[in-house]
Amino acid sequence: MSTLNGGADHVLGTTHKKEESPTFPYIQETARKNPFNVPESYVRTEEQMEKHLYTPHLSSHLPIIDFGLLSNGNKEELLKLDFACKEWGYFQIVNHGMQIDLMQRVKDAVAEFSELSIKEKIKYAMPPDDMQGYGHTSVDWSDYLVLLVYPTRFRKPQFWPKELKDTIDAYSNEIKRIGEEVINSLSLLLGLEEHGLLDLHREVHQGFRVNYYPPCNTPEKVLGVSPHSDPRTIAIVMQDDDVSGTEIRYKRNWVPITPIPGALVVNVGDVIEILSNGKYKSVEHRAITNKNKKRTTFISYLFPQGDAEIGALDHMIDDQNPKMYKDTTYGEYLRHVLNTKLEGKPHINATKINEWIGE
């Protein structure tokens, strides 16, 4: 099977083609050598930072879903999920059944890897022609480690630090359970059989990404990750419990996600927006930086096989809801994503009827 048909190497960690710069070292090294120096390429304008749209008081309105109730088919919890996906595109889940001890082991193992010397870490460096490994960009204040987890035949062991392998295996198996249950619930809400959405994926792929954000001396001018939506089905994020930094676009405003200890954050990706014909929203999100504290996020992605067809479900289209998106394959969608700058939602907007760039 080709890489594109597998879909694996094209969506693991970025929503754009890589922007590694030979001029700058990894961000952790930049901050370590001179914490007061921020290279010019990372500095944003006031207009780009949009501080005037920061609305922290809305954070408490972000929906919280009880996974235990949801997985048992509780109708009230299904309605809460429906509201979350229509109104926010984001929600937090509690009572998900993953052991807190396992979640902490992941954090500890990644912290151990982060403290290795750069000489040790670059053994896992992401090659220019790959999307797995240890990398960084020249525009965002973060380093990252990106791995494909499932299907296991697409794994590249040379990029798996030995300190992380067993822990990531155990964690990703739990994420697979949780993620597929969330997708099954979305399937029911979209009028399909319980496994209808998973069947449309042909074979579910899963990636794992760690973003490491060192302290930044000028957080008011620098972003950890640029605003973007995810070209995937869903993403499941474990945050630091004591340092916030993820912000989501809600009615033009930027709303911070306040960490709930032990909870997981879930967001709807472009695939769900397209399949639902725009009923559910894949919203922009970004990461800000912190002047005094480092921060780490642990992101798992679920997405279809590359030759899986994505397009609005027939029963989501009627006179009041005309078809919004062009039918395509997931692999073809990714080709467009990889040639689009990471900024906003240009890739999904380009799939809208009469706006498809490929023709």
CATH architecture: Sandwich
The named CATH superfamily? B-lactam Antibiotic, Isopenicillin N Synthase, Chain
Helix and strand composition category:
alpha+beta
Low-confidence stretches: 1-8, 13-23
Strand-residue proportion: 15-25%
Estimate nothing, just give the exact number of structural domains: 1
Give the C-alpha Rg: 19 Å
Overall 3D form:
globular
Number of helices: 12
**Mean pLDDT reading:** 91
Describe the strand arrangement of the main beta sheet, using strand numbers. 1-2-10-7-12-5-4-3
Number of strands: 14
- Please outline the major beta sheet: 8 strands, mixed
Descriptive key words:
single chain, 359 residues, alpha+beta, Jelly Rolls, 8-stranded mixed sheet, 4-stranded antiparallel sheet, 14 strands, globular, disordered N terminus, Oxoglu/Fe-dep_dioxygenase_dom, iron, DIOX_N, metal ion binding, 2OG-Fe(II) oxygenase family oxidoreductase
Concise synopsis of the structure shown:
This protein has 12 helices and 14 strands. It is of the alpha+beta class. The chain starts with a helix and ends in a 10-residue tail after the last helix.
Explain this structure:
A hairpin with a 2-residue loop joins strand 8 and strand 9 (253-256). The chain is 28% helix and 20% strand. The model is unreliable at 1-8 and 13-23 (pLDDT under 50). It contains 12 helices and 14 strands. The protein is an alpha+beta fold. It has one domain (3-349): Jelly Rolls (Sandwich), CATH 2.60.120. The chain has an 8-stranded mixed beta sheet with strand order 1-2-10-7-12-5-4-3. The protein has a 4-stranded antiparallel beta sheet with strand order 6-11-8-9, with no helix packed on it. Helix 6 packs across helix 8 (165-189). It is globular and about 60 Å long. This is 2OG-Fe(II) oxygenase family oxidoreductase. It comes from Medicago truncatula (Barrel medic).
